[in-house]
Amino acid sequence: MTSQTAPPPVEDERRTPRRQLPRLVVGGRDVTSGVGFVVALVLLVVLAAVTTENFLTEQNLTNLLRQMVTVGLLAYGMLVVILTAGIDLSVGSVVAFSGIVSAGLVADLPIPLALAVGVAAGIGFGLVNGLLIAGFDLAPFVVTLAALTTIRGLAFVYSEVPIAPEDPGFFTLGTALAGPIPVPTLIMIGVFVVGGIFLTRTPAGRAIVAIGGNRETVRLAGISVKKHLVLAYTISGTCAGLAGVILASRVGIAQPSVGVAFELDAIAACVIGGASLAGGRGSVRATLGGVIVLSLINNLLNLHGVQSFWQQVLKGLIIIAVIIVQRRSMGERA
């Protein structure tokens, strides 16, 4: 009589459901992340006010509003690109080139035209990036990384030394005030307002968002993916060119070496605001909030005398931490 081995017990394949964190829902909408973001912002402001006596001074607050303009403009352009599941690593170099070209042309052209040429340079670089990525189906990381080094080299070709225009009119754009608010800050806010309307209420803007969500679906719907990719990178280049001329006007000097790691600040602001680097998800308002948070952190670290390279370390850690939180949140919702 043969002995039969009992079959191994069948394991219960049902997974124990993950314990979900409590969420705040108002009017059918999950506002947990928004409320948490506001709380973190308030705590950051309180921390800055308590730990340094210079934070709430008029001079520091005005400088804070001015300093966030460069990051803000780059962040909006970066958000548009990220929504397509792309990336633009060239924005820092575009800032340098646009600034130094506009400063160099002040001696030969009227100031408004010199500034316009700087912005036009940014538009041109963004357009070329978009054409290469869309036309040849190249990876955005590779194309914009190549553009980063190429444009930086062109900035040094144009001038190896800093250029400081002598015409005081060159400084107006970057230093003018409208009441207590710096004019560049109002320009940045205007870009976010118009940009928000563009992304949410126009066919082109909605197509850019949809491309990051499902590119093939957009193509099957008869929408030109290539055209909208070119538009996205052109917008990013335009914002970088505008940021470059405003920065040069504010500090009064243009340097070919400026803008190194500015792309990291822009990406960090988008990620802090909840944008997904996988594309298709991001908010203009939340990105502006990310710009404010990042600028507050930079300002607080500067007031405490923290060296710049430690600030870069902190920004990198912030990006990693926020991405981990996003992945966990998406896993819970799934």
From TrEMBL:
<feature type="transmembrane region" description="Helical">
    <location>
        <begin position="309"/>
        <end position="325"/>
    </location>
</feature>
<keyword id="KW-1003">Cell membrane</keyword>
<feature type="transmembrane region" description="Helical">
    <location>
        <begin position="170"/>
        <end position="199"/>
    </location>
</feature>
<keyword id="KW-0812">Transmembrane</keyword>
<dbReference type="InterPro" id="IPR001851">
    <property type="entry name" value="ABC_transp_permease"/>
</dbReference>
<feature type="transmembrane region" description="Helical">
    <location>
        <begin position="73"/>
        <end position="97"/>
    </location>
</feature>
<feature type="transmembrane region" description="Helical">
    <location>
        <begin position="138"/>
        <end position="158"/>
    </location>
</feature>
<dbReference type="GO" id="GO:0005886">
    <property type="term" value="C:plasma membrane"/>
</dbReference>
<feature type="transmembrane region" description="Helical">
    <location>
        <begin position="31"/>
        <end position="52"/>
    </location>
</feature>
<keyword id="KW-0472">Membrane</keyword>
<keyword id="KW-1133">Transmembrane helix</keyword>
<dbReference type="Pfam" id="PF02653">
    <property type="entry name" value="BPD_transp_2"/>
</dbReference>
<dbReference type="GO" id="GO:0022857">
    <property type="term" value="F:transmembrane transporter activity"/>
</dbReference>
<feature type="transmembrane region" description="Helical">
    <location>
        <begin position="109"/>
        <end position="131"/>
    </location>
</feature>
<feature type="transmembrane region" description="Helical">
    <location>
        <begin position="229"/>
        <end position="248"/>
    </location>
</feature>
<protein>
    <submittedName>
        <fullName>ABC transporter permease</fullName>
    </submittedName>
</protein>
